[in-house]
Write a structure and sequence with these properties.
The complex is a heterodimer of chains A (about 325) and B (about 325).
Chain A lengths: L1 H28 L4 H6 L5 H11 L5 H13 L13 H35 L3 H7 L4 H21 L3 H15 L16 H34 L3 H8 L4 H12 L1 H26 L4 H11 L2 H29 L2 H4 L1
Helix pairs in contact in A: 1-14, 5-7, 5-9, 5-12, 5-13, 5-14, 7-9, 8-9, 8-12, 9-11, 9-12, 12-14, 13-14
Chain B lengths: L1 H16 L1 H4 L20 E3 L5 E6 L2 E5 L4 E4 L5 E5 L6 E3 L19 H37 L1 H16 L2 H10 L7 H32 L2 H8 L4 H9 L4 H24 L11 H7 L3 H6 L5 H17 L13
Helix pairs in contact in B: 1-3, 1-12, 3-4, 3-6, 3-9, 4-6, 5-6, 6-9, 9-10, 9-12, 10-12
Classes of the chains: A mainly alpha (about 325), B alpha+beta (about 325).
Chain lengths: ~325, ~325
């Protein structure tokens, strides 16, 4: 178990290192740099060269990378060229905003998706047979499960880019909810204000996940039906609903836990689209402006922050998987 | 439901293939008096209740500043079939163009652009999915067949790409080049990026399949009959992964469609005069557009329908891998 976590930790550290190095090198290799982008076409060559000299952009890639690496090891990630502030001042704010968005969406999606998946999953053949009472209640349950399934299928076809477009459209049309940003300019800053701004982006990010969790959980539940441990528990006289919501649910958590690691990446990708459309001031937004301005240290900082999220996410999901199914750690 | 999905896809593909015929106008034709004009609905009954051949009421600009239009109910403009190679268009396009899905901020017909955009968006996604499949099958096949150190190295590499948020990888790779590139280069570049990002999803599954198939008797039989490694892998083992690859492609295509749209939406995809679903959405990226010109969101609706179609067709092949999306 410990060896397993040590291995995963090494992977996580490597991830952060590789991603930030790669993004610095890529950003440095890109044509044009901050000096040429910020001064514009009209600037004289000498002015650009001078700016390059001042900002230290005229050094070779190797020496720039070495320098960055040494300083990064001391937690100094350089200065943003366009904001003229240390990168480590700029990142936490937007990283916090992205984290708020992504974590809320993940929690909401899990809390809604898993129970819905249990409801649709227990309507499958094996469980219905166990219930033994088809009657009116059974039929109503079937209709509800069918409805949930259809909604899931529709939501699965709506990635965050589309949900956020449609939700912003709905919000703009009805005027019920704010459509952009994180706070109002007037009377902003209260918790209620923040919450009302969160509804659209969180829903946009969470809805496709709800559908995904529902489908996965439903599938896992229906596969649990008829397994020996379920039959044995039922035979002991434990009520069906208790078997479903306690024993089978626990056993069926594995598939969902195992996609959590990948979901973190999906969440970050999805939150990029959502942040852009709903003007949520997160990492995605910051990285986009940095990329456009060729602000290489800020780009690298954003990438590093993103990869730390990712590394933390994979570690947590590995832990979750190891708890749900200890066999994972032994491989 | 499966049939409905197939029908959706078929209609889209046919409409995209015959875009110059189905769409009433060329993608760059600007109707200067009709910026952001709403959709013109085809009618067959006029206000007095009598029947006519399909016609539209022309739009009259009610407010230049707000770009508000009113229907001019007094004149009927007949729609004509097959004039100059277009399926259906207005009989006097200059005065009263036929906008099935409205006009964009340059006065271009959204419906025509949507059809041409389908060519680029779908074409790009399918080519990229084919590339990802080739690359993934190759890497996965080699890893699964060779085993040992090579297997470890290839799979560590693909695990690494798998956990990265693909959107950011695409973004970083894209921005390593000039911000504005000619359309063909963008097409080639995005195809390449998507293929690399998508390949590990194929590779992982193909590796597992090749590994387990290799243990089976038929593989040993083929090997003992003197089949070379290449022949054994390509002729005998890889075909076992066909079903998996088919399912995986239907998962990759939607994510590529959306990724193109996202990149073009933020201005790092195709340059403007090109009609792709992403560049069209880019036009719609103001709050004003959301509230007042909702027809500009029709590429989003088109994307939804295509993805829904794919999901409906594949819903029976539901393995858990279907829910892991690369982008």
């Amino acid at each position: 178990m410990l060896a397993y976590f040590a291995r995963r930790l090494v992977f996580a550290v490597f991830l952060v290192f590789a991603v930030s190095s790669a993004s610095l090198l890529l950003a440095r290799l890109a044509p044009g740099d901050y000096a040429s982008e910020s001064l514009g076409l009209g600037a004289r060559r000498e002015t650009i060269d001078e700016a390059r000299e001042r900002l230290g952009l005229n050094r070779s890639i190797a020496s720039q990378y070495r320098d960055w690496l040494v300083r990064a090891a001391h937690f100094d990630f350089g200065r943003s060229l366009q904001y003229d502030r240390p990168v480590s001042d700029l990142i936490p704010e937007s990283a916090k905003n992205t984290a708020i968005l992504a974590l809320t969406a993940l929690v909401v999606a899990t809390l809604i998706g898993l129970p819905l998946g249990v409801i649709t999953g227990k309507q499958q053949a094996g469980w219905a047979g166990g219930a033994g009472k088809a009657g009116r209640a059974g039929r109503a349950g079937g209709i509800i499960a069918g409805a949930i399934r259809s909604v899931s299928l529709v939501l699965l076809s709506l990635p965050p880019l589309l949900t956020s477009l449609f939700l912003v459209f709905a919000a703009a049309k009805t005027g019920l909810l704010p459509v952009g940003g994180m706070t109002s300019s007037v009377n902003g800053g209260t918790v209620g204000d923040l919450l009302s701004h969160m509804v659209v982006p969180v829903a946009a990010l969470a809805l496709p996940l709800v559908a995904m969790f529902e489908r996965l959980q439903s599938q896992a539940m229906s596969e649990t039906a008829g397994q020996p441990f379920v039959i044995a528990t039922l035979a002991r006289g434990v009520p069906l609903s208790r078997v479903i919501w306690r024993d089978a649910l626990k056993n069926a958590l594995r598939p969902v836990a195992s996609v959590y690691g990948l979901v973190i990446g999906t969440l970050l990708s999805g939150s990029f689209a959502v942040e852009t459309i709903t003007a949520w001031p997160g990492l995605g937004q910051l990285m986009l402006t940095a990329l456009r301005a060729r602000d290489i240290y800020l780009v690298t900082g954003c990438a590093a922050a993103g990869s730390i999220f990712l590394a933390a996410g994979t570690l947590v999901s590995d832990a979750a998987l190891a708890i749900v199914d200890p066999r994972t750690a032994e491989r | 439901m499966r049939r409905f999905g197939l029908a959706l896809l078929a209609v889209t593909v046919v409409a995209a293939a015959f875009a110059p015929v189905v769409g009433p106008y060329a993608i760059d034709r600007q109707f200067r008096g009709f910026l952001n004009a709403p959709p013109t609905r085809p009618h067959v009954i006029d206000d007095s209740g009598s029947w006519h051949a399909p016609f539209i009421y022309p739009w009259r600009l009610a407010s230049q500043l707000e770009q508000r239009y009113e229907e001019d109910r007094s004149t009927r403009i007949r729609l004509t079939w097959f004039p100059g190679g277009h399926l259906l268009t207005s009989s006097s396009s200059d005065r009263a163009p036929f906008f099935l899905l409205g006009a964009d901020s340059y006065g271009r017909d959204v419906f025509s652009r949507l059809l041409y955009g389908a060519r680029i968006s779908l074409g790009l996604s399918f080519v990229a999915a084919a590339g990802a499949t080739l690359l993934g099958a190759l890497l996965g096949g080699i890893a699964g067949y060779a085993g040992g150190l090579l297997d470890d190295a290839l799979m560590r590499g693909s695990d690494f790409v798998l956990v990265l948020p693909a959107m950011y990888v695409a973004l970083a790779l894209r921005s390593a080049l000039k911000l504005v590139l000619p359309p063909f280069e963008v097409f080639a570049l995005l195809t390449g990026i998507f293929a690399i990002v998508g390949a590990p999803f194929i590779a992982r599954g193909v590796r597992a399949i090749v590994r387990s198939e290799k243990q089976l008797d038929y593989s040993a039989a083929a090997a003992s009959l003197g089949a070379s490694h290449l022949r054994l892998l390509v002729r005998h083992l890889l075909p076992a992964a066909r079903g998996f690859i088919a399912v995986e492609i239907t998962m990759l295509v939607p994510s590529f469609i959306v990724a193109e749209a996202t990149l073009s939406y933020v201005g790092l995809g195709f340059p403007d005069p090109v009609a792709s679903w992403g560049t069209m959405l880019h036009d719609a990226s103001t709050v004003r557009a959301f509230a007042d010109f909702p027809w500009l969101l029709s590429p989003a609706a088109a994307m939804f329908l295509v993805v829904l179609g794919l999901n409906l067709v594949m819903q029976d092949e539901s393995a858990s891998m279907r829910y892991e999306r690369p982008l």
